[in-house]
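Re: Re: ligand-bound prediction request (bumping)

Still looking for help on this. To restate: I need the protein modeled with FFO bound, output as structure tokens. Inputs repeated here so nobody has to scroll up.
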Amino acid sequence: MPTTRQQLRRNIRQQRRQLSPAVQRRHALLMQQQICQTLWFRQARHIALYLPSDGEISPEPLIQLCWKLKKTVYLPVLHPILHNRLWFLPYHAHSPMRLNSYKIREPRLLKAPRRPAWALDLVCLPLVAFDSEGGRLGMGGGYYDRTFNFKLKSQGIKGPKLVGLAHALQQVDKLPLENWDVPLTGIATEKQIFSFNC
Ligand SMILES: Nc1nc2c(c(=O)[nH]1)N(C=O)[C@@H](CNc1ccc(C(=O)N[C@@H](CCC(=O)O)C(=O)O)cc1)CN2
Ligand SMILES: Nc1ncnc2c1ncn2[C@@H]1O[C@H](COP(=O)(O)OP(=O)(O)OP(=O)(O)O)[C@@H](O)[C@H]1O
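Reply:
Sorry for the wait, this slipped through. Here it is.
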């Protein structure tokens, strides 16, 4: 019987949560060393990352490196009005934070200048599963697909590079592509960089 998206999510989320803190730290550092060599990272000044939850690979070493290199870091914030869309707010060491409805820390809205999604250079996306052709399965809210939907339009804005971050164990054989799925530019794991032609 084929595995449903729900079963696959449950399965991989469970495997991810079982990684020890030491393995999590090692993967986060190795993934950072992989991605920081790419042109996607080196040419980017405005970079969206995320704070890890539920065993996701941690972009925290990458965030520290961005700050050191004077790149501006943004985090996703659940849109206060539009259904399942994201805003991106700057994130500094002293940004006032709150917990969103999924208990993930996000910057408070306050007066921080938002950056429109199309004006970011690089967006590092969390994901639950990926395949070797750039297929991505997320947490199921469709937040990133809705927010970067403009990239699917033929005359659309080119927008940021979209790079998924994952533990290598999150790779699966083949994910069915849905017509709302926004293509990824690449994926970075602790083992390697996958690059797709977009
Ligand atoms: N670290 C991180 N931040 C992120 C995301 C993410 O995947 N990871 N998102 C990527 O989109 C957005 C939040 N999307 C999320 C969607 C579902 C769940 C979640 O845990 N869902 C529960 C059930 C729903 C509920 O509690 O109401 C679950 O599946 O167990 C979490 C985040 C924005 N920020
Ligand atoms: N551009 C869009 N417009 C309208 N609905 C969308 C769009 N993109 C995704 N959806 C809807 O969102 C729901 C969740 O999509 P999906 O399972 O692909 O999310 P995901 O990629 O796992 O989540 P996330 O991007 O939040 O990590 C689906 O029911 C889909 O119909």
